[in-house]
Design goal:
globular, 12-stranded parallel beta sheet, 4 helices, 11-stranded parallel beta sheet, single chain, 32 strands, 370 residues
């Protein structure tokens, strides 16, 4: 008889296979670094090497972080179970370990159209150091060296976009950063159609009040969109021109600034202080009444993850714009999802009756969290 643990992971993989197989007829490759779990591969790199374009790689949660740098050179969907799975939320996942990675994941030529979702950067043997005041960083990162890459529902430290040549169609959506950087490096080419949406940037690392959170210098941004994000504590958004800032919520301290560039459009943003460095032109909404009480939530990352929701918002809340329309990460058409939940089936409950002989009754509940 199979063990209970093996049955759990087998069912999770089967649910994902059914979900994707009906759409794309692609292969599903399981990764788990615990040998007894019976996965196809023990490392992400091995699964990527074996996969064919269009396949899905499911990285299962594990106590032990995944090591070994990964280079993606084909179109893949790489999915983990999310993060903050032990937070006091209802029905996130039955198995509460996240897919923690201690490695670089690099998307190179040939990987256009790939999606990375539901993984968590974690420190460990490789370690990391970061000084976001000067944007110096050493450690784990997601590197984008091609076009058309989507990073969705991940908990990350650093997304690095190679600007040695022109890039386009890059998305960072519904991600959690603390500390967090999205930066261009390696050149001054043009980065076109960059979308950063419904993300949470909590940069309270260290003691200095100023941190670079998003930077496109010296690269040239074209048709960037930063919308429905929440920026909490220290930040500097630098080198951003030709960018639409829409429905963001900024809570900062003296010295924070946004977009020292040209041809930016600001629409329906909100900030806690008028001097935060946001232009008052172009329909920018700068409401300061009561915002400190709404943005002064303390606690650990798990607590912050579920704080800025619509449930407590009223017309007196500065996040409120109109009925059904809120600023910040929980607003808009594709709001932030607690714990990095992604739209693939997850087993969130398993009930097993008393075993009799070689058989037993089991009830399994799964849903896509959307």
């Amino acid at each position: 008889m199979k063990s209970k643990t093996f049955i759990l992971f087998h069912v999770v993989a089967l649910a994902v296979m059914v979900f994707y197989g009906q759409v794309a007829q692609a292969n599903i490759l399981r990764v788990n670094n615990v040998p007894s779990m019976g996965a196809n591969y023990a490392t992400i790199a091995a699964a990527v090497a074996a996969a064919q374009a269009g396949d899905t790689i499911h990285i299962e949660g594990s106590v032990t972080p995944y090591a070994g740098d990964v280079v993606v050179d084909k179109k893949l969907v790489i999915i983990g179970p999310g993060y903050f799975l032990t937070a006091p939320l209802s029905g996130t996942q039955h198995y509460k370990e996240s897919a923690k990675i201690n490695c670089h994941i690099t998307f190179v030529a040939g990987s256009g159209g790939s999606i990375l979702a539901g993984i968590e950067h974690r420190t460990g043997a490789t370690g990391y150091t970061v000084d976001t005041r000067t944007a110096n960083y050493a450690g784990n990162r997601v590197r984008i060296q091609t076009d058309s890459i989507s990073i969705i529902s991940c908990k990350l430290f650093f997304v690095e976009i190679d600007a040695s040549q022109n890039r386009q169609n890059i998305s960072v959506l519904r991600c959690f950063f603390n500390p967090g950087l999205i930066m261009t490096t390696g050149g001054s080419a043009t980065i076109t159609n960059m979308t950063i949406g419904n993300c949470f940037f909590r940069n309270d690392f260290g003691t200095a009040p100023i941190r670079v959170v998003i930077s496109c210098a010296p690269a040239a941004p074209a048709n960037w969109r930063i919308s429905q994000c929440t920026f909490y504590n220290g930040f500097v958004l630098a080198g951003l021109s030709n960018t639409l800032f829409s429905s963001n919520a900024f809570f900062g301290v003296a010295g924070n600034s946004v977009a020292a560039g040209i041809n930016n459009i600001f629409s329906q943003n909100v900030t806690n202080v008028d001097g935060i460095g946001i232009s008052t032109a172009d329909n920018n909404a700068l409401r300061t009444d009561g915002i400190t009480s709404w943005f002064s939530q303390g606690g650990n990352n798990e607590a912050i993850d579920v704080y800025f929701t619509e449930s407590g918002n009223t017309s007196s809340c500065p996040l409120f714009i109109s009925t059904g329309f809120f600023r910040g990460m929980y607003g808009g058409a594709n709001p932030y999802r607690e714990s990095g939940m992604f739209s693939v089936p997850s087993v969130y409950e398993i009930r097993m009756e008393v075993e009799v002989g070689d058989s037993f009754d089991m009830t399994i509940r799964a849903r896509t969290h959307y």
